[in-house]
Amino acid sequence: MPAKNFHVRQAAVSALRAWSKGHDYAESLVERHAQRRMLSSQDRALLQAILFGVLRHRRVLDFWIGKLRQGKLDAETRDVLRVGLCQLLILEIPDHAAVNETVEAGKAPVRSLINAVLRKAISSRKRLMEDLDEMNPATRHSHPDWLFNRWRKAFGKETAVAIMEWDNQPAETFFRLNPLTEAPEDIPGKRLPFAQMYYRLDGKIPNELLAKGALYIQDPATRHCVELLAPMPGEKILDACAAPGGKAFLIAAALGSGTGLTCTDSNEKRIPRLEQNLARLHIKPDELSIHDWCTPAPERFHGAFDAILLDVPCSNTGVIRRRVDVRWRLQPQDIEDLAKIQTSILENALPCLKPGGRIVYSTCSIEAAENIELVTAFAEKHGLTVGKTIQIKPNEHGTDGAFAAVLTAN
After folding, report:
1. What DSSP character marks residue 258?
2. Catalytic residue of the set 86, 225, 263, 364
3. Per-residue pLDDT for 280 more than 80?
4. Is 263 considered catalytic here?
5. Cβ-contact 401, 364 below 8 angstroms
6. Which of 40, 194, 234, 352 would be 301's cystine partner, CB 3.0–4.6 Å?
7. For 46-97, what is each residue's pLDDT tens digit?
8. DSSP H helical segments within 218-352, as ranges?
9. Class (C level, CATH) for 220-409
10. Could you tell me which of 259, 324, 137 has the C-alpha nearest to residue 147?
């Protein structure tokens, strides 16, 4: 008879197999496999902890597997062992549950092997943990060598290691109150002293308050670009890459309503969610439409806006703690390719400014090639001034990483 929580471990293995084939992002896989197996909220949380734990510590887990098992392993058996070792050595789930229920997730011909490796890990736990000190930093903190080397060159070894350590911590949940509606009597969190109206969530997601639009789940790093944009009532503002709506919410909060706000996004599939989020937050923009800013702007947008927010597609290297699989998906060439896309978006947005208008360029990246180097080169080419810039490194600021810069005409 299968172990009680066998289906959770099986879901974790199935999700890892799907992820390795590039079928979806980790966050989406948790939701899909939890729904498919009708997991309770407690089991869903366990599934997420295991899946995210394996992805955060993948290189360490494979190092340990190499110490515990000589010879080749098929991909699925390796994933089962990753799931088991993550529970035993990272999450510190009780040995009997981690072993028995993970063994059941393997195929019958390899269950004895899985059982033997996991029980060997228990008896060798002290030595395996001591092995951490022998690993190079990229292996110890489970990041690709190229990314660690890139950060070491940019920030120095100490900071590069600190960023990797930060990336492997479970992400906290923050929210911002909505000033466009009545504040809740009981606020389910602790106020952040450095970010007005932001709170660190205590306990479960407050679904009722979310449904009412009383608050929005959002990292405090989101606010920096909108603070630089400084929207004023009466201005015409464009949020060009608006989905899912977090920054449009902040712009509307500054404007006092959705009046004056135009939102676009390039992805037709994201528009319904953007529309729903804004409606729930009591925001009705002047316009909400589809446009790919890698192509020229619609004629009606030319010279139409006092300020434009470009929260462009980026490498996401500032939010790896939250998007745990980014480190394994990203390749060096991607950063170069993204910089071309980002420059194209700037080129096509620039004609949409009114005389004397301003653009705020924003990413959740910590890569200079996507941030200060890019906006400096663009400003020089077009005779613009780079005003205030903000670069947030997550390990130093305790939030997501972010970059923002103001560009104005000379």
Report:
1. S
2. 364
3. yes
4. no
5. yes
6. 352
7. 999 999 999 999 999 999 999 999 889 999 999 999 999 999 999 999 999 9
8. 223-229, 246-255, 271-280, 326-329, 332-349
9. alpha beta
10. 137
Amino acid letter, 94: P
* Delimiting residues of CATH 1.10.940.10 domain(s) in the chain: 6-135
Angle at the Cα of 404 from the Cα atoms of 400 and 409, rounded to 5 degrees: 175
Number of helices and strands (H, E) in the chain? 19, 11
d(CA 51, CA 32): 13
Amino acid occupying residue 242 = A
- Quote the pTM value: 0.94
Instruction: Report the length, in residues, of the chain.
Output: 410
**Residue linked to tokens 């470009």:** 310
Q: Which residue has the tokens 């939030």?
A: 399
**Exposure string (b/e) for 348-372, b if CB count within 10 Å is 16 or more?**
bbbebbbeebbbbbbbbbbbebbbe
From 224, 259, 229, 261, select the one nearest 245 (Cα to Cα).
261
CATH 3.40.50.150 boundaries in the chain: 220-409
Element containing residue 387 per DSSP (H, E): strand 384-392
Task: For the domain made up of 6-135, give the CATH fold.
Answer: N-utilizing Substance Protein B Homolog; Chain A (1.10.940)
Distance CA 67, CA 121 (A): 9
